[in-house]
Write a structure and sequence with these properties.
The complex is a heterodimer of chains A (406) and B (375). The relative contact order of chain A is 0.09. Chain A is an alpha+beta fold. The N and C termini of chain A lie far apart (58 Å). Chain B has 375 residues and is of the alpha+beta class. Chain B contains eleven helices and nine strands. In chain B, the strands form two sheets. In chain B, strands 1, 2, 3, 4, 5, 6 and 7 form a seven-stranded mixed β-sheet that branches. A two-stranded antiparallel sheet of chain B has the order 8-9. In chain B, strand 8 and strand 9 form a beta hairpin. The chains are: A alpha+beta (406), B alpha+beta (375). At the A-B interface, helix 8, helix 9 and helix 11 of A face helix 7, strand 9, helix 8, helix 9 and helix 11 of B. The structure holds flavin-adenine dinucleotide.
Chain lengths: 406, 375
C-alpha cells in the first residue's frame, strides 16, 4: 500500500497544477456557477480553455478530444481542478452519459460531429428517458417513434429532463414496436432540442428551483441517421447510458464533513459548543466514518481500475450512501441550530444556507439516476448474486401489459 | 497510488484462510463453546508454528518481521474463522505494549517467547462497569507490588504474563497511572474464569494481592502508552471485525439462496435482498476504512490516530449489523444453538467492547479530529 504518486503520476500532477495555476478563471467565478446564462457562459469558457489545451475529458481517446488518460490520472486531474470542477456541472449529462453512449453505439458521423463538441463544452446535452408513467421501470415507456421514409416521427412526453431548457441536444429512448415484449420494442435516437414540435416546460422543484422539465413531442421528425444502435435494440443501448450514469452521478456529491464539523464548534448549545454534546459527537462520527469509507472505497476502486479491472456495480455504493447520509446530515445540522434552523434566507442563515440547500437537494439525490431501492436491487443481484425480482410483465407484448393508465 | 494488498499478502491471506478452514472449523469453535477448555490448544499450536504470533515482531526479537499489513491480513482471517484462541490478547495488546514501552531487555525476554508461542499475554485494565478512565482504576502499585482486582481480563485465566494498569499517583489524571508486567503464575495472583457473552474467548477475574510487578515504561506514562497501544490494536481488531462481518454476510446470503418460502427462495424477496445489500455496503465501507488504518499502522503515519478510530467505529458497526441481521435472515433457525449464527453474534459483541465501547470510540474519533484540526 502506497498513497504516494509514482514518478509518472507526480509528473502528471505537476503538469496539471501548473496549467491550472496559469489558466484558472479570475476570482469571482464562484458566484457564477449557476445554471443561468451567466453561469453557463462561465462554465463554457473554462471548458473550452481546457479543451484547447488538452485537459477536457482527459480519459477519452484522443480522436474524440481526450488524451487517453488513465483512471488514476483522471483522479489526479480532478484533485488538482478542485472546486473549479463545479463549473463542469452543466456538462455532466453530456460528458458522463450521452457521449459514452454515442461512442459505443453512434454512427461514425455522429461520433465525429458531436463527441468533440461535447468535450469542448460547445454543446450541452440532456437525457430524455423518464416519463410520467415510467421512471424506475424505464422499459415501460410510451413515447412513440414511427418510421416515415428516412425519418422517424416522435409523439409523446418525457419528464424530469434536467437541463432540457438550455440543452442543445438530447438522447431519446422511444417505443418503436408495442406488439413485442417491453424490453424488445425500444429504439434510441438523439435529436436537436430546437427541432419543431418540441415543447419544454420547466417544473418547479421541492427546492423552489427549476432544474428539470417536462418535454413534449408533437410530430417531431428525426432523421434515421440519428438513430443510436439498431431498431429494437434501445434497451441495450440505454444500459450503456445507465451504467455510465451511476459512475457520473455517484461520486459527484461532496460530503461536506468539514463544514459540518466547523459549524458544530460555533453553534452554542446548553452546555457550550454543540460539538461538546455527546449526541452530536456520535452523529459527527457516524458521518465521518461513512465519508471516509467512501473516499477509501474510491481509492480501492482506483487501484483496481489502474490494474485494468473494469468498474463494477460496486460504484452504486457511493450514491446510495451519500444520498441517505447527506439528507440526515443536513437535517441534523438544522436541528443543532434549534429554532433558528428554520431560516434559509441566505444573508441570515447559518453558513449562507448551505445545509438548507442540501436538506432539499438530497431528496432528489436519492431518486435521480436510480432510487435507493433500485440501487439496493443492483447490489443484491449483481454483486451478491441474489435472484432478480419477479417480473410479471416480462414476456407479455407491451400493449397487453396492464397499467394504471389503460 | 496503490491502495491494495500486494500479491504476496493476498497469497498469505489465502493460506491463512485454508489453514483456518481446516483448524478452526465450526466443529473446533464449538468444542470450546460447549466444553471446558479456555481455548483451542491444537489451533494455538498451529498458529504458533505458522509464525503468526511473531508476524509483525522484528526479527531481532525472534519474530518474522513481516510487518503490520501481513498481521492485518491474518487478523481478518482469524475474525472470519471466529478463532477460539488468545491471539489478540497476546499479539495486539501484550506484545504491542512491550514493543511500545519495553526496555531492550524486556523486549528480548518477552517478545521472543511470544513469537515462539511459549507464552500467552493479556492486558488488564477494567475494574467494573463503565468506561476505563484514570479515575476508575483503583488497583495500586508501590514498592514493586501491585494490589487490586481486574475484571474482565480477556484471557486472564490462561495468560502467563499480563500488562496491568495501576495507580501510582494520588491524582485522578492520566499521570497517576503506570503500567506493570506481572507474572500471572507468581505469588499473590489469583485468576478465576468467568462467564461472558462469548465462551469461545476466555475471560477472568484477576486479583492481585501484593504481587510482584515489573514497571513497563516510565512511571506516570501508563495512559500515554495505552493510547498508542489502543490505536494500533484498533486497526487489528478492525480487521477481525471485518472478517467476521464478511463471514456473517456470506452465511446469510447462502442461507437465503437455499431456504424457500411461498414457493420462492427467500433471497428473491426484496426485504431480504435490501437487507443483504445494506450489510454488504456496511462491510465494504468498513473494509476500506480498515485498509486505510492498515496503511497508517504499517507506516506509523501521523494519521494513525484518526485512521484507527475510523476503522474501529466502522468495523464495530459493520460486524454488529451483519451478525444480528444474519440471525434475522435465518429466522427461527438463527436462534438455535445448533446453527452457527450466534458464534458471530457473540464474537461481535466481545470485539465491540474489548477496547472500550462504540460511543467511546466515536468520541475518541471526534477528539482526534479536533486535535488534528487544531494542529
Ligand atoms: C433531480 C432529478 C433529475 C432528474 N433528471 C433526469 C433526466 O435528466 N433525465 C431523465 O430521463 N430522468 C431524470 N430524472 C428522473 C429519474 O431518473 C426518476 O425520477 C427515477 O428513475 C425514479 O423514477 P420515478 O420518479 O418514476 O419513480 P418511480 O419509479 O415511480 O418510483 C416510486 C417509488 O417506487 C420505488 N420502486 C419503483 N420500482 C421499484 C422496484 N422494482 N423495487 C422497489 N421499489 C421500487 C422507487 O424506489 C420509489 O421509491 C431525474 C430525477 C430527479 C429527481
Amino acid at each position: 500500500m502506497d498513497f504516494n504518486d509514482t514518478p509518472q503520476e507526480a509528473a502528471f500532477r505537476a503538469q496539471a497544477r501548473e496549467w491550472i495555476a496559469a489558466n484558472r478563471p479570475a476570482d469571482g467565478w464562484q458566484t457564477r456557477t449557476g445554471r443561468d446564462d451567466d453561469g453557463i457562459a462561465t462554465s463554457k469558457a473554462w471548458q473550452k480553455k481546457k479543451y484547447d489545451a488538452g485537459w477536457a475529458c482527459i480519459h477519452w481517446p484522443t480522436e474524440f478530444g481526450g488524451r487517453g488518460a488513465t483512471p488514476i490520472e483522471r483522479v489526479i486531474w480532478s484533485q488538482e481542478e478542485g472546486e473549479l470542477g463545479q463549473l463542469g456541472g452543466v456538462f455532466i449529462i453530456g460528458q458522463g452519459m450521452c457521449a459514452p453512449t454515442i461512442m459505443a453505439h453512434g454512427s461514425q458521423a455522429a461520433k465525429e460531429r458531436h463527441v468533440p463538441k461535447i468535450a469542448s463544452g460547445e454543446e450541452i446535452w440532456c437525457q430524455l428517458f423518464s416519463e410520467p408513467g415510467s421512471g424506475s421501470d424505464l422499459a415501460g415507456l410510451r413515447t412513440r417513434a414511427e418510421k416515415q421514409g428516412d425519418e422517424w416521427v416522435i409523439n409523446g412526453q418525457k419528464i424530469w429532463t434536467s437541463g432540457a431548457h438550455y440543452a442543445d441536444y438530447g438522447i431519446l429512448i422511444t417505443r418503436t414496436d408495442p406488439n413485442v415484449a417491453k424490453h424488445k420494442g425500444l429504439t434510441m435516437f438523439y435529436l436537436d432540442m430546437r427541432s419543431p414540435g418540441v415543447t419544454i416546460k420547466p417544473i418547479k422543484q421541492v427546492s423552489g428551483r427549476s432544474d428539470f422539465n417536462e418535454v413534449y413531442f408533437a410530430d417531431v421528425r428525426i432523421p434515421d441517421s440519428q438513430r443510436l444502435g439498431e431498431v429494437g435494440d434501445g434497451w441495450k443501448v440505454s444500459l450503456t447510458t445507465l451504467m455510465n450514469e451511476r459512475l457520473a452521478v455517484g461520486g459527484g456529491f461532496p460530503t461536506n464533513f468539514e463544514e459540518m464539523f466547523e459549524m458544530t464548534k460555533v453553534i452554542e448549545g446548553d452546555n457550550g459548543a454543540a460539538i461538546d454534546d455527546a449526541a452530536v459527537r456520535e452523529k459527527l462520527a457516524d458521518w465521518y466514518i461513512r465519508a471516509a469509507g467512501l473516499r477509501n472505497t474510491q481509492n480501492r476502486m482506483m487501484s483496481a481500475l489502474s490494474r485494468g479491472q473494469a468498474p463494477g456495480p460496486e460504484a452504486s455504493i457511493s450514491k446510495l450512501v451519500l444520498g441517505i447520509n447527506r439528507q440526515n446530515m443536513a437535517s441534523t445540522m438544522l436541528d443543532i441550530q434549534d429554532t433558528y434552523g428554520v431560516i434559509s434566507q441566505k444573508d441570515l442563515a447559518v453558513n449562507g444556507g448551505q445545509f438548507h440547500e442540501i436538506f432539499f437537494r438530497a431528496v432528489a439525490h436519492r431518486i435521480e439516476g436510480g432510487t435507493d431501492e433500485i440501487l439496493r436491487n443492483i447490489i443484491a443481484e449483481r454483486v451478491l448474486g441474489l435472484p432478480g425480482d419477479i417480473r410479471v410483465d416480462k414476456d407479455l407484448p407491451f400493449n397487453k401489459i396492464p397499467s394504471g393508465a389503460n | 497510488m496503490n491502495f491494495e494488498f500486494s500479491d504476496d499478502q493476498k497469497l498469505l491471506k489465502e493460506q491463512a484462510r485454508g489453514f483456518l478452514q481446516s483448524k478452526s472449523s465450526s466443529k473446533d469453535v464449538r468444542r470450546i463453546l460447549d466444553g471446558n477448555e479456555p481455548f483451542h490448544p491444537e489451533l494455538w499450536k498451529g498458529v504458533a508454528e505458522m509464525g503468526w504470533l511473531g508476524a509483525s515482531i522484528p526479527e531481532e526479537y525472534g519474530g518474522l518481521g513481516l510487518g503490520y499489513l501481513e498481521l492485518c491480513v491474518i487478523a481478518e482471517e482469524l475474525g472470519r474463522a471466529v478463532a477460539p484462541i488468545p491471539f489478540s490478547s497476546t499479539v495486539y495488546l501484550f506484545a504491542e505494549a512491550i514493543l511500545a514501552a519495553g526496555t531492550e531487555e524486556q523486549k528480548q525476554k518477552y517478545l521472543e517467547k511470544v513469537s515462539a508461542g511459549e507464552i500467552i499475554g493479556a492486558l488488564a485494565l477494567s475494574e467494573g462497569p463503565g468506561a476505563v478512565t484514570p479515575k476508575t482504576i483503583q488497583s495500586s502499585a508501590s514498592g514493586g507490588k501491585i494490589t487490586g482486582t481486574k475484571l474482565p481480563v480477556a484471557d486472564g485465566d490462561v495468560a502467563d504474563y499480563a500488562v496491568v494498569a495501576a495507580r501510582t499517583g494520588s491524582g485522578s489524571d492520566e499521570g497517576s497511572i503506570s503500567l506493570f508486567i506481572v507474572d500471572m503464575k507468581s505469588a499473590g495472583v489469583k485468576a478465576e474464569a468467568i462467564e461472558t457473552v462469548d465462551p469461545t474467548r476466555s475471560h477472568a477475574k484477576v486479583t492481585f494481592d501484593g504481587a510482584a510487578a515489573e514497571p513497563l515504561g516510565a512511571a506516570g506514562q501508563g495512559w500515554a502508552i495505552l493510547d498508542r497501544v489502543f490505536d494500533r490494536a484498533a486497526v487489528l481488531f478492525g480487521f477481525e471485525q471485518v472478517g467476521g462481518a464478511q463471514a456473517a454476510l456470506e452465511m446469510a446470503r447462502d442461507y437465503a439462496m437455499g431456504r424457500y418460502a411461498f414457493g420462492r427462495p427467500i433471497a428473491s424477496f426484496q426485504a431480504i435482498k435490501h437487507k443483504l445489500a445494506d450489510m454488504y455496503v456496511a462491510t465494504e465501507l468498513a473494509r476500506s476504512n480498515a485498509y486505510y488504518g492498515a496503511w497508517a499502522l504499517s507506516t506509523d503515519a501521523p494519521e494513525l490516530a484518526v485512521a484507527a478510530a475510523t476503522a474501529r467505529v466502522s468495523a464495530t458497526e459493520a460486524y454488529h449489523e451483519c451478525s444480528k441481521e444474519n440471525i434475522q435472515v435465518h429466522g427461527g433457525m438463527g436462534f438455535t444453538w445448533e446453527f452457527d449464527c450466534h458464534l458471530h453474534y457473540r464474537r461481535s459483541k466481545v470485539l465491540s467492547l474489548v477496547l472500550g465501547s462504540l460511543p467511546r470510540w466515536k468520541d475518541r474519533l471526534i477528539s482526534r479530529l479536533e486535535e488534528r484540526n487544531a494542529a
